[in-house]
Every structure is written in structure tokens, then in C-alpha cells.
Amino acid sequence: MSAPTTPPPSPASKPSVTEREARQVAEAAREQDWRKPSFAKELFLGRFRLDLIHPHPLPATQDAQRGEEFLAKLRDFCETEIDGERIERDALIPDEVINGLKELGALGMKIDTKYGGLGLTQVYYNKALALVGSACPSLGALLSAHQSIGVPQPLKIFGTQEQKDAFLPRCARTDISAFLLTEPDVGSDPARLATTAVPDGDDGDYVLDGVKLWTTNGVVADLLVVMARVPRSEGHKGGITAFVVEAASEGITVENRNAFMGLRGLENGVTRFHRVRVPAANRIGPEGAGLKIALTTLNTGRLSLPAMCVGAGKWCLKIAREWTGAREQWGKPVAYHEAVGSKISFIAATTFALEAVLDLSSQMADEDRNDIRIEAALAKLYGSEMACLMADELVQIRGGRGFETAASLKARGERAVPAEQILRDLRINRIFEGSTEIMHLLIAREAVDAHLKVAGDLIDPDKTLSDKARAGAAAGAFYARWLPKLIAGPGQLPRAYADFAPAGHPDLSGHLRYAERAARRLARSTFYGMSRWQGRMETKQGFLGRIVDIGAELFAISAACVRAELLRSTEDYGREAYQLADAFCRQSRIRVDELFGRLWTNTDDLDRKVVKGVLAGTYTWLEQGVVDPSDDGPWIADATPGASTRENVHRPIR
Question: Is 433 a catalytic residue?
Fold first, then answer.
């Protein structure tokens, strides 16, 4: 075999892209079409399609039976074999725990039975993650990264039969996988990806060079999904491309095991590739399809994070109930003091709503009748934000004991409640798999897709006058039909959604009428913003974030009501479910009204001026009077391609 025909790039040749080029790369990676209905897409357009989610879809009997049987085994394992306190103390998951999960089949929960997996549905996969994550959040992250974004999911959707036969049986039982996209200088802007995969001139193999950062599972992984840039050349389309790479390949060095404020057992590292040969047969999909593969994988992959957020909410509620019932101040349990009780109500109602959003989105993913790209993104966004709030409230409820570590509590003779740990562990979920800020932009782009399809050419500077004229005519016809429908709807009819007002239960029909009215108001507000700012709309990130947050609340209100009605008809605690749904909807409506007000009354313009002043050094006088404990190292580590000079800390599970 000869050396690669094109040398790896030098630091000077690192991709340099403009903002416009970066947006074009991201746009090209999107799924362009909507072949299936989407409740959330319709919601943002002002069409409250309750029929798409009600009656609540249910799993098939055999799927539920298989899932419950596995959950019973998994619960026993979590209670008897997982020592979360030890993992937190040692910052390491013992090999025997991972091997035990392998024997249970937990590595293959989502993998089809014909490849040796368990074949669980998304609903039961999420329940399993919530269960494991409650015992040890680092273990939940390991299993999630392996199956939701690691090798199994992209191969399930895009892999060849040969790839599935070769890798899925390994992933189901023995091999841990990791997903490698981020680089030291590349985060949410993949257009600047520097890792290269250069085709070899003789046999069509690829040679990888580059450095990947924050490689969850990368320290212990056996298989890697690697995103790398293939240079354009004769016979090669080029572009960002996905590969399955053997972690033990020559030239791969895990240079560091990273440590974080939370998830201390996380096997996350820095991985360097130096002239690593990868067979052409290990390329997933065509060249240039890597980002599309990553985004499509995340459509359902993102549901794993809210699953663990739901588990965290359930645990927070349990601890809050037990502690505030036992702790007395001023003659009564602290739960009955309104300042504390309101926090408990928030935790209970929000946990109910998060589980409603998660189960609804997951069941729709299992049925594959709806496009859930927005629903899954909303679940991730909303779940990660609200779980952090719930954990913070639990720490406040526990007071000084909430700030104290479980080990310290135990040492002085009290129950070892890891409240401060759950707050630390949950914090990363607002960053993992798309930060809150990026999720706002991603969801906003999908929310305005219908508008851009009919009117996008009007604000595109590259379009000709004739193109703009045609777009103007099409937009006029679309808005002539669409805008009048935003004036009135079922939300103004007093008896609409009467099925959600059964006798002897709190009335949820009013909340659904509110959601329908708010959906139309949301669509009108989006249109007003587009009319006002036109091509500058994409820069109004504060406005877009509030639009998305309103949509997330309305989706949660809808899901909570639908779940409450399901439980009324199937469980003994239907009235209690209605009560929780009612509490959540009332709390959510207050937040929605505030967000609507902040669409137009805010400090966005002033904030931009302050930011310019900060970066210009106008306020450096305000920084005086402190010392900076940071060292003087570079803000971003050098990622120049080349052979590693570091010890390889790759640690395969034995």
C-alpha cells in the first residue's frame, strides 16, 4: 500500500469559512422534505392538530411485555450491582459493572434481535435509560452514547447489509461504540471540520488524520463513528463523511481522559488519528453525507437525554416528598410552608409533563407515522432545561444538606442523598448533543421552513429579480390562504375539546383551548417578525429562542393533557393525573404569557450594544479587584495533525 496521494493538511490549511458558507453547509445537511405529518410543525404554523397525538398512541402488547421483562431484570441489576457512590468517588465505572450490563444485553437494547440485540422499542429503551441513569448517571450516558449516536443507530438507518452483519452483533453484546465529531476548534460549526480522510491511490481505502475532542465513550470504545472531511478530487465528491473505525487501529491515540464537574464516571477523552487506515467498506453512506447522517441519527437519538431527565425528575420528587414530610420547622412539616410547597408542586407537575412529552414523542417514533424531528428536539431542549431547574429547587429545598455531598452526609450519620451531584450531573444536558442555544436555532429553522419554501427567494441576495418576482407571487398566494385561518379557531369555542372535561376531574379542555389560541398567536408573531426583519431574521436569536420556547411549552401542555386522558381511561390514578396536568398547564401558561410579552418588550438591542462594549474593553474597569486563578495556557489546544507524543490511555473493558 502506498502513502496517501494527498498529504494531511497543515495548520495553515485548516478550513476557513464565512458565516454564509457555514450556514450553507448546515442547510445542506437538513432533511429538506416533510413526507409525514408533524404535530409540532403544524403547531408553529398555527394549526393545532390534536388529532395527530390524541388518542395517545400505545405500544403493541408483545413490545410492552418484552420491555417490562427486561426492565425487571435491569432494576434488579441496578439495585444489587451498581454502586453509584463508588463510581462518584473513584470517577470510574468498574469493568465488572459494564460486563454485567453486557451479559444482560443492555448494549443491544435498540438493536434488532436478528443481530443479537433485544429489539426494544424507543419507549422501553428510554425507560431503561431513566432507570440506569437514576442508579448512576455516568452509566446512563455510556449506554446512551453507545446506542443513540454511536455505531448502531447510523448503521440501522444508513448502513449496508454487510456493515450491519459485521458490526451490529458486536455492538449488541461485546463492543462499546463512540461518536466523534467535535474538535478543539470545531463545535456547533461543522463547516470548519479539520480532520481529514484522504483516499488512498491504490485500493480506495481512506487515511485519517486529525484530533477529536469530548469523545464520550472514546476512552473505552471498541468501535468509533468518525466524521472527517474527504478532499474533493477526481472520482471523489468529497465533503464531511462518516466512517466506522476500529478503536484499536494503528495510529489512534487516546491522549487524555477528560474530567468534568459532573458525570465523573464518564469515559470521555481526546483522540488523535495519525495516518489511520480505514477500509472503504467502512464508510457509512456516500461521501459528503456525514452531517446529514449525524442529524438524521439525532432525530430519535436526542430522546435519550430527556429520558434521563425524566428519571432525574422522578428522583427529585421522591426526595422532596420524603424530606419535606420529615423535616419540621415552626410547628409543621416544611412541605406545608408555601415557599417550599410551591417548589414541590413545580417538581411534581413538571416531571409529569416531561414524561408525557417523552413517551408521546417516543411512541410516535416507534410507530413511524409522524415526522418527529421537531418533537424530539423540543423534548431534548425542554427536558434538559426543566430538569436543571428541578434539581436546583431540590437543592434549595434541602438547604445546607442539599449543598453537602452524600459522602459527607453519610460520614456524620445522615442519609446520603446526592442532591448536589444530580445538579452537577444534569448540567451537561443543556450542552450535550446540541446546546440550548443551538437547539433554539435548529428548531426555529424547522419551524419557519414553510415560510422559507414560499418566500425564501425574496430575501436571498443571490436570486435574480425574476426569481424574486416568482417568489413574491407564490408567497402572496400562500399568505392569502394562510393568514385568514389565524384569526379564529376552536380555541374560541367554549365547548371545544369537551372530552378533556370529564365529570369529577379538573377541566383540561380550557388548557387545550388556550394552546390552540396561543398556537395561532405564535404563528402570527413569527410572521410579524419575518415581515419586520426579513433577511435579518436569522440574526434575531433572542426572538427566535422565545418563539421556540413558547412552542415547547405548548407542546408540553398538549402532551400533558393527552397523557392525563390516557391514564384516566387505563389506570386507577386518572383523577390524580388530571390534577398534575392541570397544575402543569397553569404553571406553563404563566411562562407562555411572559414569553409572548418578551417577544416585543426586551433588552435585545441594548444587550448587543453592551456586548460590543465588553469586547472593545470599555468596561475593563469593572473587572478590577479580583485575581484570576486560571493559568496562561491557550484558550484552544493545538490540534495540528501528526504523530502523538502522549501516552495512549485507551482502556478497553476486560
Answer: yes
- pLDDT above 90 covers a percentage of the chain that reads 83
Asked if 19 and 188 count as a contact pair (C-beta separation under 8 A), the reply is no
223-230 and 177-180 beta bridge pairing: parallel
Q: Which of 177, 252, 179, 180 is nearest to 212 (CA)?
A: 180
Annotated catalytic residue, options 88, 183, 433, 553: 433
| pLDDT score of 471 more than 90 | no
What is the tens place of the pLDDT at every residue in 322-380?
999 999 999 999 999 999 999 999 999 999 999 999 999 999 999 998 999 999 999 99
Can you read off the three cell numbers belonging to residue 420? 448536589
- Report the alpha-carbon distance of residue 368 to residue 375 in Å, rounded: 13
- Asked whether 43 and 519 are in contact (CB, 8 A), the reply is yes
The string of pLDDT tens digits covering residues 279-317 is: 999 999 999 999 999 988 888 889 999 999 999 999 999
453-482 burial code (b ≥16 CB/10 A, e <16): ebbebbbeeeeeeeebeebeeebeeeeeeb
Q: How far apart are CA 424 and CA 392, in angstroms?
A: 10
Q: Which long-range contacts (CB under 8 A, 24 or more apart) does 591-598 make?
A: 591/549, 591/553, 592/518, 592/550, 592/553, 592/554, 595/546, 595/549, 595/550, 595/553, 596/518, 596/521, 596/525, 596/550, 598/546
CA distances, 560 to each of 323, 331, 554, 616 (Å):
27, 36, 10, 47
- Say if residue 626's pLDDT is above 50: yes
DSSP 3-state of 638: coil
